[in-house]
């Protein structure tokens, strides 16, 4: 699994939200232990204050965890959807390329007929080599017996 993609898509923020929410839940458990201690020692005012803090911490923790999980699911679905869209586009491009190749394949079998017209049936000669060739050098298969022709 490639974790480099997680940092660019907000997964670090989502992980942070979930960790902060889990931290608040742990803090509410610690405060709950203090509430139990105050109940045993019959300290009413402090007990109510700690219950208030415990409720706030636990509610915020659950809310942040819920937001983090929801965002993770949303980003995960978006990433999955983007990958499927990208794969569909690649398949579409490959299908178009295959269609073009298939259309070109029908023409390729007839290129041999034009070869004799284009260069007297000889091998392909690069334009750079043609420029370096002396004027009296033959071009094509049948031109060994002929003199070089001009196009005009």
Which tags fit this structure?
rod-shaped, mainly alpha, 152 residues, single chain, 76% helix
Describe the structure.
The chain is mostly helical and 152 residues long. Helices cover 76% and strands 0% of the residues. The protein has 5 helices and no strands. It has helices spanning 4-8, 11-40, 44-108, 111-119, 127-132. Helix 2 (11-40) runs antiparallel to helix 3 (44-108).
Protein topology:
Elements: H1 4-8, H2 11-40, H3 44-108, H4 111-119, H5 127-132
Helix pairs in contact: 2-3
Distance between the termini: 66 Å
Number of helices: 5
* Integer-rounded radius of gyration: 39 Å
Mean pLDDT: 77
* Strand fraction: under 5%
Poorly predicted ranges: 141-147
Structural class: mainly alpha
- Helix residue percentage: over 70%
The main pleated sheet reads as: none
What is the strand tally?
0
Shape: rod-shaped
Order of helices and strands: HHHHH
Quick overview:
Helix content is 76%, strand content 0%. It has 152 residues and is mostly helical.
């Amino acid at each position: 699994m490639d974790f480099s993609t997680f940092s660019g898509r907000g997964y670090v923020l989502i992980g942070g939200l979930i960790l902060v929410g889990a931290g608040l839940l742990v803090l509410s458990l610690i405060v709950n232990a203090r509430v139990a201690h105050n109940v045993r020692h019959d300290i009413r005012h402090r007990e109510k204050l700690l219950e208030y803090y415990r409720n706030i911490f636990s509610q915020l923790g659950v809310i942040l965890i819920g937001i983090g999980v929801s965002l993770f699911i949303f980003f995960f679905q978006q990433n999955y959807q983007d990958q499927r869209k990208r794969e569909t586009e690649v398949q579409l491009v490959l299908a178009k390329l295959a269609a073009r190749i298939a259309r070109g394949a029908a023409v390729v079998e007839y290129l041999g007929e034009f070869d004799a017209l284009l260069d007297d049936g000889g091998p392909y000669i690069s334009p750079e080599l043609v420029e370096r060739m002396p004027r009296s050098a033959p071009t094509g298969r049948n031109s060994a017996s002929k003199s070089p022709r001009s196009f005009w």
